[in-house]
Design brief:
The complex is a heterodimer of chains A (290) and B (389). Chain A is α/β, with parallel strands linked by helices and 290 residues long. Chain A has nine helices and 14 strands. The chains are: A alpha/beta (290), B alpha+beta (389).
Chain lengths: 290, 389
């Protein structure tokens, strides 16, 4: 078990033949991901990395039976690509591209939701079920199989967290990088119940950051519904107000979205909140011993 | 990206959002000419900087003659205006906006921002115009009316009525106000704005609504499709170091502390600052070298960090995914050749090609490079080094 994706998941790549798309599709295949084809308009009928290329997502889905799409198209085309995937009946779109306009994502997500398509990202490392399926750009070698589920807005903190968990002698069930844009797909609140229901996951690590209130929503959900131990870190305790900290959504507007309020809400929900990401591994060890 | 009030008002006008008439000036002589061109017997001289609170800081003044316009413009132009939003260093005023006086009967507030929880734009209105809206939100939240608009249907009559009734506007004023709000929503959507704020929006004696102020910020990711807005960029309003860093693909923000940070990834960069703070040190900056870091960008990062004379140590914290650690190690060596790195550099490289990187640093044998094993170890060593231990 795991959540959302596993060794049998059939994946297509939108933006398959581009530089980024090619490089990462190849890495994913090497990890074991079942990439069954890709989409690049006007390259339909060709073969790329030993897999068929299609002009449209619809054709790709009809021919290959893919249920997940990994999106690498340039920022201005992300919304179009996401909506095409939703229209073609894809179940989950993993959007890696950074820099998609917010207005585009608003429309694309609303359309995806209407078509029951889940999305992850944009501007994220993707999703990985350890030693089975990697859909994204994370370094696969650090994700050893185990019983810790991980949800993170930040790419490198996902790696940092996973690495510490593995060094402590545990491993990862599934890790999801949800991205730090103002509008994102699946968030803590949707992923927490999946991990709660997954028998392979015994403990959940959630990594958040300043900006927005997704972590506050997560805290309320955890308090009511999550029985598994949760370890959390919120990045940006030392971030100044009103400054965008790298991620488009990582900004304290006025007095809202601070690390302090998120940490307090999570603590009140019974979550083990660590002050430094260097403490994640040790906190997981404690949580797993319970 | 943010723009000036006079620029926001240019955009407002295009969409039929009423504003007082005004003309921009960069010299006192031009200010006087503008005033006579506008006509009338009362004018407002307004400093143009990217910060609120200009009135309280002395950057907005009323003039009752052309001579007074000239005098006030000469006082305001060239002044360093300090407001609660500029920081203690203030901002240099290079332009003044000369505007016709308005007959103010009431001051309201109207703004549009993205509601991240609802994932749609929200229009905010309040009868408490002229006040800091943050303060209103904190003390009297019931005085802010919020109406979310689903872009799939756009601004409808009911949205307008909710706002108008919420503000308690009499029947004869509702139509004009709703038209105003609808136009402002259009400005927001069509220009990929991130926020618009009109504070105050005034009601004149004749019962008209007018944007007396105008503040706009834009989604940086969408500027590519709005070249006319990109043209409004005023680089003198932006931090020179942040701008220089951005040209090299680095995301840099300067802070008050003593430990320079160079990290890959925004989350880990914040996490590194937090860890330094937790261990008793103070971060001097946020710096995300991004996913395509190479020797040149790392060297540039060192150069920018070292411009800050307060920096007593540098902590390089890289978790290599796509970024290969050996490239970063070579970048650090390159940087020590290109720039005079005269402070201890604590280096933690983990992930892809970490062992090759360790070998490179070891063989280089540079005295002020200290290798750390993990994030906690690195932060502790950086804090100790900054204290001279």
């Amino acid at each position: 078990m795991s959540i959302l994706v596993n060794k049998d998941t059939k994946v297509i790549v939108q933006g398959f033949t581009g530089k980024e798309g090619s490089f990462h599709a190849e890495q994913c295949m090497a990890y074991g991901t079942k990439i069954v084809g890709g989409v690049t308009p006007n390259k339909g009928g060709q073969e790329h990395l030993g897999q068929p290329v299609f002009n449209t997502v619809k054709e790709a889905v009809e021919t290959t039976g893919a249920t997940v799409s990994m999106i690498f198209v340039p920022p201005a085309f992300v919304a179009d690509a996401v909506m095409e995937a939703a229209d073609a009946g894809i179940d989950l779109a993993v959007i890696i591209t950074e820099g998609a306009p917010v207005r585009d994502m608003q429309a694309a997500k609303a359309y995806a939701t209407k078509h029951n398509m889940k999305t992850i990202g944009p501007n994220c490392p993707g999703i990985i079920t350890a030693e089975e399926c990697k859909i994204g750009i994370m370094p696969g070698m650090i994700f050893k199989k185990g019983n810790v589920g991980l949800i993170s807005k930040s790419g490198t903190l996902t790696y940092e967290g996973a690495n510490q968990v593995v060094k402590e002698g545990f491993g990862i069930s599934t890790a999801v990088g949800i991205g730090g844009d103002p509008i994102i797909g699946l968030s803590y609140k949707q992923l927490l119940p999946m991990f709660e229901a997954d028998p392979e996951t015994h403990c959940i690590v959630m990594i958040g950051e300043i900006g927005g209130d997704l972590e506050i929503q997560a805290a309320a959900y955890i308090k009511e519904h999550i029985t598994k131990p949760v370890v959390a870190f919120i990045a940006g305790q030392t971030a100044p107000k009103g400054k965008r900290m790298g991620h488009a959504g990582a900004i304290i507007s006025g007095s809202a979205g601070t690390a302090a309020e998120k940490m307090a809400a999570l603590e009140a929900a019974g979550v083990t909140v660590v002050v430094s990401p260097a403490e994640i591994g040790k906190a997981v060890t404690k949580a797993m011993a319970k | 990206m943010n723009i000036h009030e006079y620029q926001a008002k240019q955009i407002f006008k295009k969409y039929g959002v009423p504003t007082p008439r005004g003309i921009i000036a960069s010299t006192p002589a031009q200010a006087a000419i503008n005033a006579s061109e506008l006509g009338g017997d009362i004018w407002v001289v307004k400093a143009q900087i990217h910060a609120g609170g200009r009135g309280l800081g002395g950057g907005v003044k009323l003039a009752r003659s052309i001579d007074e316009v000239r005098t006030l413009a000469s006082e305001i132009l060239g002044m360093t205006l300090v407001t609660h939003q500029t920081g203690p260093e203030g901002k240099l005023v290079q332009k003044v906006y000369i505007e016709e006086g308005a007959d103010i009967k009431a001051e309201l507030y109207l703004g549009v921002v993205l509601d991240r929880a609802k994932e749609m734009p929200v229009i905010m209105a309040s009868t408490e115009g002229g006040m800091d809206i943050e303060t209103v939100a904190e003390n009297t939240p019931e005085k802010i009316i919020k109406v979310a608009v689903d872009p799939a249907i756009g601004f409808q009559g009911f949205h307008g009525r909710e706002l108008a009734f919420g503000l308690g506007l009499p029947k004869e004023e509702q139509g004009k106000f709703i038209k105003f709000a609808a136009a402002l929503y259009k400005v927001y959507m069509e220009n990929d704005a991130e926020m618009i704020e009109i504070n105050p929006l005034i009601k004149t004696a004749s019962g008209d609504f007018m944007a007396l102020d105008g503040k706009m910020g834009f989604d940086d990711s969408a500027l590519g499709r709005h070249p006319e807005i990109e043209d409004m960029r005023d680089i003198s309003e932006e931090d020179a170091d942040e701008r220089e860093a951005a040209q090299y693909g680095l995301s840099y923000i300067s802070l008050d502390g003593e430990i320079g940070c160079m990290v890959n990834g925004a989350g880990l960069a914040m996490g590194t600052m937090d860890t330094i703070n937790y261990m008793g040190g103070t971060p001097a900056n946020f710096l995300d070298v991004g996913g395509s870091a190479n020797a040149q960008t790392v060297a540039k990062g060192f150069e920018i960090i070292l411009k800050n004379p307060k920096v007593k140590a540098i902590f390089v914290n890289i978790f290599g995914g796509i970024v290969r650690c050996d490239r970063i190690a070579n970048g650090i060596l390159e940087a020590t050749k290109l720039t005079d790195v005269n402070v201890p550099v604590i280096v933690r490289l983990d992930g892809t090609n970490a062992s090759e990187a360790a070998e490179i640093l070891k063989n280089a044998n540079i005295s002020n490079i200290i290798v750390a094993t993990d994030l906690g170890d690195g932060a502790a060593k950086a804090v100790a080094a900054a204290k001279g231990e």
